[in-house]
């Protein structure tokens, strides 16, 4: 396992700082469905369309952003910016992902205070919540799919179900479950296709 390369760091295109800021301003702020939907869209844009990072670099940023406290999406965007163009990329990604959305939330909050008791608005919010759950499940699959090989499917299912039981059934904090799964993953042999 020590000779395994987990993260390849050979992305082929180094974006300009303005391209990073533009990408995150556009997709981190105007993708409906929250952070999970944004990660899924950014995966398509950064890996499939622009070829800025490798799959393993993207996954590493996703995993590290989930392990730290605070706003995971901003941590994820900053990590992607760092991988793409180091310090300048990290700053551009963070500002692009945060400033427009902060202003948008301010405006939406002000408008919502006028319409919060409207039945149509309440129905729209319930529909948006259902959609956000579906988007979260899809994002989990987008992140997990490259790592699923024939021999690991049963183990992945067991870890997923076990994690849900620990979280919902025993009220164990998510960070404790994530760290425990990381230890288990480090100790298990690597499954081969």
From TrEMBL:
It is found in: Cell membrane. It comes from the Bacteria. One of its GO terms (cellular component) is plasma membrane. It is a multi-pass membrane protein. GO terms for molecular function: chromate transmembrane transporter activity. Coiled coil: none annotated. Belongs to the chromate ion transporter (CHR) (TC 2.A.51) family. Signal peptide: none annotated. The lineage of its organism: Bacteria, Pseudomonadati, Pseudomonadota, Alphaproteobacteria, Acetobacterales. This is Chromate transporter. The chain crosses the membrane at residues 63-84, 91-114, 120-144, 151-168, 174-191. PANTHER family: CHROMATE TRANSPORT PROTEIN-RELATED, CHROMATE TRANSPORTER. The keyword Membrane applies. InterPro entries: CHR_Transporter, Chromate_transpt. Its main location: membrane. Keywords: Cell membrane, Membrane, Transmembrane, Transmembrane helix.
């Amino acid at each position: 396992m020590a000779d395994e390369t987990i993260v390849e760091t050979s992305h082929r295109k180094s974006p300009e700082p303005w391209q990073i800021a533009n990408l995150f301003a556009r997709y981190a702020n105007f993708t409906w469905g929250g952070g999970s939907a944004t990660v899924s869209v950014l995966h398509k844009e950064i890996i499939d369309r622009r070829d800025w990072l490798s799959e393993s670099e993207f996954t590493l940023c996703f995993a590290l952003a989930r392990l730290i406290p605070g706003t995971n999406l901003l941590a994820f965007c900053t990590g992607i910016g760092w991988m793409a163009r180091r310090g300048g990329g990290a700053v551009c990604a963070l500002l692009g992902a945060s400033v427009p959305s902060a202003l948008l939330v301010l405006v939406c909050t002000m408008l919502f205070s006028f319409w919060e008791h409207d039945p149509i608005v309440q129905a729209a919010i319930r529909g948006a919540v259902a959609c956000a759950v579906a988007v979260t499940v899809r994002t989990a699959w987008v992140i997990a799919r490259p790592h699923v090989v024939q021999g690991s499917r049963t183990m992945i299912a067991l870890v997923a179900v076990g994690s849900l039981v620990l979280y919902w059934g025993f009220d164990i904090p998510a960070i404790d479950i994530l760290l425990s799964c990381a230890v288990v993953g480090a100790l298990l042999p690597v499954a081969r296709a």
